[in-house]
Design brief:
The chain has about 800 residues and is mainly α. The protein has 36 helices and no strands. The protein starts with a helix and ends with a helix.
Length: about 800
Amino acid sequence: GAVDGDAQGAEGAVDGDAEEAGATGSGAPVEPEVISPRAVAENAPELTPHGEPFGLACVLEIFRFACSFISLDDPADENAETMCAFGLQLVLSSLETAGDDFARHPALLTLVQDDLSRAVLAVAPAGNPPVLAATAATVLQMYMVMHHDLKLQLEAFLRVVLLPLAEGPAARAPGAKADASDTSAESQRIALECIVDLCRQPEFVPDLYVNYDCDLERPNLFEEVCALLSRSAFPGEGQTLGQTNLLCLEGLLAIVAGIADRSADAPPVDGFLVDGEVDFTAPSSISGGESDPKEVWAAIDGGSSAASMPGGVQRAHRLRRNRDVKRRLISCAEHFNKSPKKGLAYMQEIGLLPDPLKANAVARFFKHAPGLDKETLGEYLGDPKDFMVEVLKEYCATFDFHGVTLDKALRSFLDGFKLPGEAQKISRILEVFAARYHEANPSAVADADSAYVLSYSIIMLNTDQHNPQVKRKMTLEQFIRNNRGTNGGEDWPRETLEYIFEAIATDEIKLESTDASPALSQSRWNDIVRGCATGKGRMMTAVATDEACMYDGELFGIVWSPTVSAIAVVFDHPVDDSVLKEALDGFLGVARVAGHHRLTDVMDSLVGTLCKFASPSYANKGGGVGGGEKIKPSVLFGNDDRARTAAVTAFTVASRYGDNIRHGWRHILDLTLRLHRMDLLSEKVCESLAPDKRDGGTMRTLDGAEASSSFRRRVQRERLAKKNSGSNSILRGFSQLLSLDADGWGGGGGGEAPLGEDEKEAEARAVRCVDACRVDDVFADSKFLETDSLQHMVRALVTAAR
């Protein structure tokens, strides 16, 4: 029936294409577009005077009709949730079919940016799991087909819906329903799955970092996502590893895998920035000379924004500098929030503010610094001291009020700080604002005093309309009457006051000192719509692989440590083989990046973690009174899948990336000793470690000599304890140490209990595992190691030989 109705109304709808498209938001004439293949088929029935069965206006109406289903009342019944899920499925089908074409039509794009996005943000937090699942799928599809036009919407999706839900259910309140926590846990799982799916998209992580973490006006979304995944990857005290923890681990591994894939095609970078620090005094790509704070501030505050630059090395350099400035500004803001005087002095010390202080420099800091406490800033700007008043004037001068209505100008001005409570300070701030507004719009108001009076009246109206303690709200007529004769002795135009009254009544000016609440109010949504209208809602052009590689140092510096820690948790809990394999692949992914870019600290940490889990615990079988029968360590090792896989991975890393191991060689040698104590080193391995009769060993000696290949072929296995040569081979001392612990698991050869069939099979698995480790190759190839790595290996051998 709906299709029949659409067909019957298609004729009238297409006639009004231009009008309806303009009313939707763009205002530009749009030609009717053929969407269905039937429109171009021969002898197609002419349903409209234009001979086209469908047009843009019809598409708009159908899509708007689908969006109208996406709504939920509070509380929502089952039927409403079913209809909401149905509407989300309709929208999802539309985006999957023709989402790539939506951005080509301003009317459709506006519908997605406003109606659809607002509806999705409204129903997701309150919906049941099926509604949330459909919402998550819709958000993922929106990102895949038109994320470049949804910068502000994606930020809202993450901070208002996905990140809060992914944090998990709060403690169940007394009297709560029994299934309340189950529903919350399911919602958490769905939100995490959506975040993980986003992280798997090749462009998501670079997009997130470039468009938010490197933007002074936007939050550090990549850091927030990584922090959430890192926190939730670890089970609570006394709890087992659950699905939520594994999902978070998947997200971290997806980020690492993307960095590793990009690194494979990129040249190694000396000084790969693991800690994310940027040299603030590095030569500037803008001027080619030494950079200074003035140049950096000019690049950020001026018109040469990185957002307008084409992708490539130049933009990457600019964005990394912006990121460094943002990091420093956040640190300065923290100092300022504690003590304004000390905070400004700190900025002078690090060179971001001149000495002596200048009002315009301080004002620029107030305008751009993220994380400033709005209440502290309001008190500073309201201070009557001459320098503070000058800073207030300079701060107000950073706003462009030309052609902006008074209420919008006031809203923008008050967005950065909270008005102080003292009336004199409020009056002083509004006087400066009114003078600046009159200067920018001399024909809109009679004089600065008129702008001051109306601004004060707007603030009073805002408090009256949105303070719940005010029971009797001001009416439009009362507002008009209160402002009679205040425009230079004349009345304000009635339509101006009506517009202001309606704008304030429906869109509150937020005067709170913080915006930490994740709830999306109407006022915040209006800010998003205004941002889209001014061009702030577009992401930068696509980040190519070569440019993305330039950010990987900062990304890897943020994510590698929590990833290794989260993988290590897998070894402390019983998991499936597939999870264990995924964890080990994650270790290798970290090793790929660290080895490619010569990150020795990361490699040492990785090797140490692997070697820790490659050793089985020494347990005892439960026996009778007075003790129990020991389990042979080799049997324990053969029965421990995690220890065997960790051992293979550790030696694989040492074999592939030995040049980048430093202190990690101590862990490799210690693991080799443990395997020898369990009598798991094969004859071939022991031969390679045994000292030669002529030169004391088959590998590099202390004085740098190498054993010949003929000596290696002739070497015969002997018990190392019987060797008592005076050779200076460092390996000979290590080999003697091996002999001392040969039977360390339970005494000498006598008294050993015979192994059962299961124990023999376990020991055979252990032997096969050690053979797969190729321990002999690791040490035989040490002569090819770079000097630094070889020196650390020799030190480890000396330590082990002692």
